[in-house]
Amino acid sequence: MRFCRLKGGDKTLLYLFLNGRFVALEDIYAKTNIKSPGSIEEVIGNKELLDQLEQFTLPLDRAKNSGIMLRSDQSYAVPFSNPGKIWSIGLNYGDHAKDLNVKQPEKPASFMKPKSSMITQGGDIILPKGFGRITAEAELGIIIGKRGKYIEESDAMDYIFGIAPIIDMTAIDILLQNPRFLTMSKSFDTFFSIGPMIATKDEFEDLQSLKISTIKNGVVEHSNYVRNMLFSPEKLISFHSQIFTFEPGDIISTGTPGAVEIQRGDMVKCLIEGEDSISLENKVL
């Protein structure tokens, strides 16, 4: 299943992407006994609701006058209304470490991002003036599905709700001044794009086979597979759970296969390919 938030007029609603179209969960509620959640946070970790939604199908021949609308009728909103921790991983691919001329870490190199940096497809990446070069990085986002501490690596998949494409930005000249400036270089408004779809993990069961690509203006600049990460998603979950408690809705941005410098007018895209594909694209202003 895939979820997104769409806004139209003065309303922002949670939608299920079904049979190539979008159906508001409140419209599903009007036709079934399924509880209508107001946010993706209410869906994450709610197994009963997810089981009900999995059983729900709506034939396309009943699409008219049934609350289903095409995306062109709406615009995307950030999928999370109240995001939890945004935990990002640096230097998780050898090629990216080479790009920055730094040694790969022996343990995950991680940092946090503020929720004020979040945008989604349809939002623009705003380049801050006076801070030098800015890079964009496509990444696989892991969405945590349930509360956990001291998680074994072998159990980590049980804590994953789903995945999302991410584009993470860096003010690279700030970072190069001093590695302690990492968080500052990553925290500008619009420097963390996610979504617009959140896909449940059953759509992409083999995380290791997923290919992540950083694309600028239609050209693939960098790509690599999850299996080539220094620290797999399962290792990242296990490692960080020794430090803090994961909560439903927490996000792990797992690192990029490579960054690309961006300028005003560019289009930058994250493409995740596996059993299916999911993508995210933003314009740079």
Mind explaining what this structure looks like?
The protein is globular. It has 285 residues and is α+β, with helices and mostly antiparallel strands. It folds into 2 domains: 2-77, no CATH class; 86-284, Alpha-Beta Complex (Fumarylacetoacetate hydrolase, domain 2), CATH 3.90.850. Residues 60-66 have low confidence and may be disordered. It has 7 helices and 19 strands.
Per-chain topology:
Layout: E1 2-8, E2 11-18, E3 21-24, H1 25-31, H2 40-43, H3 47-55, E4 68-69, E5 75-77, E6 86-90, H4 94-99, E7 109-112, E8 118-119, E9 124-125, E10 134-144, E11 160-171, H5 172-177, H6 182-186, E12 192-194, E13 198-200, E14 211-216, E15 219-225, H7 233-241, E16 251-253, E17 259-261, E18 267-273, E19 277-284
Task: Describe the structure in brief.
With 285 residues, the chain is α+β, with helices and mostly antiparallel strands.
Q: Which fold name is given in CATH as the topology of the largest domain?
A: Fumarylacetoacetate hydrolase, domain 2
> What is the 3D shape?
globular
Order of helices and strands: EEEHHHEEEHEEEEEHHEEEEHEEEE
CATH architecture of the largest domain: Alpha-Beta Complex
Q: In CATH, what is the homologous superfamily of the largest domain?
A: Fumarylacetoacetase-like, C-terminal domain
Radius of gyration from CA coordinates: 19 Å
Helix count, per DSSP? 7
Uncertain segments? 60-66
Count of distinct strands: 19
Query: Class by helix and strand content?
Result: alpha+beta
What number is the mean pLDDT?
Answer: 89
- Oligomerization status of the protein chains: single chain
Please give the share of residues in helix: 10-25%
Distance between the termini: 32 Å
